[in-house]
Amino acid sequence: MDLKPITTSAATTPPSVPSTSVVPAAAPATVAPKPAFATFDDFKKIEIRAGKILSAEKIPDTDKLLKLSVDFAEAAPRQIVSGISMYFPDPAVLVGKVCMFVTNLEPRMIRGFQSNGMLFAVSTADGKFSLLEPNADIPPGTIAK
What we know:
Strand order of the largest sheet: 5-4-3-6-9
Distance between the termini: 55 Å
Number of strands: 11
């Protein structure tokens, strides 16, 4: 393949611009800044457990919040509020799923509902979404290692 520089006609090029131009290289993609490193001791503080979703319902007057009741093999199920309703128009499809949760976050009030943990999920800029679910039959309450 014979590559030649792009040239412009002298009639259309102002006198101060050379008649041969080079196509500029594409700008490098913007890279998100790296977050601060967490130490291993920081990581050891986080408790990640498998939890079985017992119920899921949309929180009224919100665009994306669901109220989940989750079994972690504790005395009672935990309530967890998660911003995933846009991916689940029918939240009932979540019932029975075993997913991964952070279980030792400080409880937090979200739109008047107490959340006692955080659901792990991933999404992409083009709208792909996935819950983090064990690929084997893992009982509720199992700690991730």
